[in-house]
Amino acid sequence: MKISKICCIGAGYVGGPTMAVIAQKCPEIKVTVVDINEARIAAWNDENLDNLPVYEPGLDKVVGEARGRNLFFSTQVDAAIQEAEMVFISVNTPTKTYGEGKGQAADLKWIELCARQIAAASDSDKIVVEKSTLPVRTAEAVKDILSNTGNGVKFQILSNPEFLAEGTAVEDLQQADRVLIGGENSPEGKEAIQALVDIYAHWIPRERILTTNVWSSELSKLTANAVLAQRVSSINALSELCEVTEADIDEVARAIGADSRIGGKFLKASVGFGGSCFQKDILNLVYISRSYGLTEVADYWEQVIKMNDHQKGRFARKIVKSLYNTVSGKKIAFLGWAFKKDTNDTRESAAIYVADQLLNEKAQISVFDPKVKYQQIQSDINYLQTRGKEENGALLESVADPYEACKDSHAVAILTEWDEFVQYDWKKIYDSMLKPAKIFDGRNILDHEQLREIGFRVYAIGKPL
Ligand code: NAD
Ligand code: UGA
Q1: Nearest ligand, CA 133
Q2: Residue ranges of the UDP-glucose/GDP-mannose dehydrogenase C-terminal domain (predicted)?
């Protein structure tokens, strides 16, 4: 079966970049990305490529090449479903905030709505591809809805989870370590798998396209994120031990990462991992394990989250403690608010939780982030509902100039590893601060020796004082 038209429901951080790369690499396929969020679609269609709703290095070029040729962004969901032979579901699957499984299970409301909409809008057979991250066995529910509410047409369901990381999305998509496709082991299932393999084979070497059964594919996505997050929590746990033993976490990470069985990647100690997925997916894994009665399995993975919460909390406590146990009315500069560099995404960013703890102590926080705007910062902190909006507005400001953020502050905290922070004139920053001037490097990116020579007191993650 040859695919000539694709529809993707959900024009977010995954749907947008993924489909842009498919369109770029497969010029003969018409790719239409649809969303109910009109503002988002308008931004994807903005003539000025700087205004795309997702900031990713290189994405403007890919969108610029394919948009209007064979890549389209639209709010006409039904029309795009109807004409496509293959429909990707790439909508959000956040943690449930109500009812059974609140705070742990994935909220599949939007997935079910998509399935019902696909069934209602389809008058020809289709391949439906789960691109969103989903609990294992979700395809069963999707299939049930599609086959019972449709117009008698046939659906094949594939699982094709996405492994891109934000900030490197385009590179990750163009040079994926692997693509995973799960499908049914029937002649129709195999044909559907082959149709999707053929799309990726335009640019991914065939041996990197893995095919499995649907359940392995669904579960592999949750567990890939769990294992990655576990590495970060492991190195962060060791960072606390380093701080009391005068070992240096970067040296320890290099030493253990040199073992080819361990590998050097993803061992960077930090203020804690953030992002929309690690916590959500582990909580989901914990919930699923518990629902099968696997208490030890659930407890094991839950510890990864507990360690991460501890790391964020102890970073904030360290700031308060070293500022003589009181930060009330003191200006503290935050460099970075995004959950990692090269993205404007702030979901679950460690900065939000560190700020919240310092605001509880009545600190005055001034934030500079090269890609995050004031409104987003306020919305992130207000979402926690720890205090009223007015108080958050009065205590938390954001400025467009990093030197302005640091001026007259008692301390500077690095929350995101933006490259430009390393290049700043740290002597100029030191001169503008109150003394003793303190730096809390939550990402271990600065030259600590040089900062100490300037006169700073430097506190880093997993390093001797
Ligand atoms: P997102 O919130 O950025 O985008 C989801 C979009 O879906 C939103 O724009 C929303 O308006 C739209 N939507 C929801 N219901 C809809 C409907 N019924 N019809 C049309 N549009 C609808 O989310 P995201 O970050 O792109 O994540 C999507 C999925 O991909 C999640 O399951 C996530 O776990 C997974 N994932 C995310 C990443 C990442 O880096 N963000 C990476 C891999 C996998
Ligand atoms: C992560 C995975 O890396 C992707 O494979 C996956 O597709 C994605 O989640 C998803 O499912 O959403 P992402 O969250 O975008 O990608 O970014 P990562 O590079 O994984 O970083 C996550 C967090 O861990 C960031 O806050 C980062 O700063 C932190 N981190 C990462 C560390 O603190 N240390 C490290 O060594 C690596």
Answers
A1: 1
A2: 333-448
